[in-house]
Amino acid sequence: xxxxxxxxxxxxAVATLTLNRQKVMNSLNFPLLHALRGEIDxxxxxxxxxxxxxxxxxxxxxxxxxxxxxxxxxEPVQVKEYIYTIRALFTxxxxxxxxxxxxxxxxxxxxxxxxxxxxxxxxASHNATMGLTETRLxxxxxxxxxxxxxRLVGRGKAKELIFTGARVGAAEALRIGLVNKICEPDxxxxxxxxxxxxxxxxxxxxxxxxKYAINFGIETDIHTGLALESSSYWVTIPTEDxxxxxxxxxxxxxxxxxxx
Length: 260
Hints:
By secondary structure, the chain is of the alpha/beta class. It has helices at residues 30-43, 68-71, 76-94, 111-118, 145-153, 155-164, 170-175, 188-200, 204-217, 222-236, 240-251, and strands at 6-11, 14-19, 51-56, 61-63, 100-104, 107-109, 121-125, 129-131, 168-169, 181-183. The protein has two domains: 6-200, 2-enoyl-CoA Hydratase, Chain A, domain 1 (Alpha-Beta Complex), CATH 3.90.226.10; 204-251, Orthogonal Bundle (Lyase 2-enoyl-coa Hydratase, Chain  A, domain 2), CATH 1.10.12. The chain is 48% helix and 16% strand. The chain has a six-stranded mixed beta sheet, sandwiched between helices. Strand 2 (14-19), helix 1 (30-43) and strand 3 form a beta-alpha-beta unit.
C-alpha cells in the first residue's frame, strides 16, 4: 500500500511506514511530509492498528533530514511553510494515541533525528548515526529538536550536541539514552516487531491512556501530573478490557483485549 515515496504495510495489528527516497537518503521534501501526515491522520482512527513502526528504505539511511536540494529552491516564506509543516507533523506523531517505534536503520540527521525523537521508542541498528547538525548550516533544529532532545538526554548533553552539530553512533546514542535499544542491522525490524508484539498484548485503552498521562504529565508539576494520571486511570475502569484482564488472570489464560 501507499505511494512511491511512502510505503505502507500492515502485519496483524502493526503498521509499518517506510520513507522511500533512497537516492536522497530518505530526506524529507514537501510531498513526503504530506504523505506521512496523511497516513498518520488515517491511522489515528484505525482500531485494527495498535502500533506504528517508522523506518527508512534501504540500509544506509533512516532519514537524512530536510531535502536540501529542495530547500535551495524555496523562498523564505516557503521555508517558513516547510518548518511549520514538519513541526506540526512531528507533533502529530508524538501525540498519536498509539505507540510509535522508530526503526533507525542508518543515518538519521537533523529532521531524521527529530522524527525519531517524536516517536515513543527508538531502536537503532549498529550502523546508525544520529545528530542535530543544523547549526553547521547556520540554522537551528526546527522540528522540535531543541525541546525534545533535552527532555530525553538532559539539558547539558543536548546543548553539547546541538552547539557542536555532533554526530553520535549507535553505542553512544544508547549510552546517553537517545535510543532504547541497539541491534544488528538484519535484526532491526524483527526487534521492532518483537517490541510491537509485546505492546499489542496489552490493553489498547490502557496503552492510550498511559501515553497520554506520560506525555502531558511530564510537562507539569508532580501534583498536576498525578491528577492527570488519576483521570487517565478512571478512563480504564469502566472498560470491558479491564474486566477481561481480571478474568484472564483468575482463569490463568491470556487476555483477549478488544479496545473496549
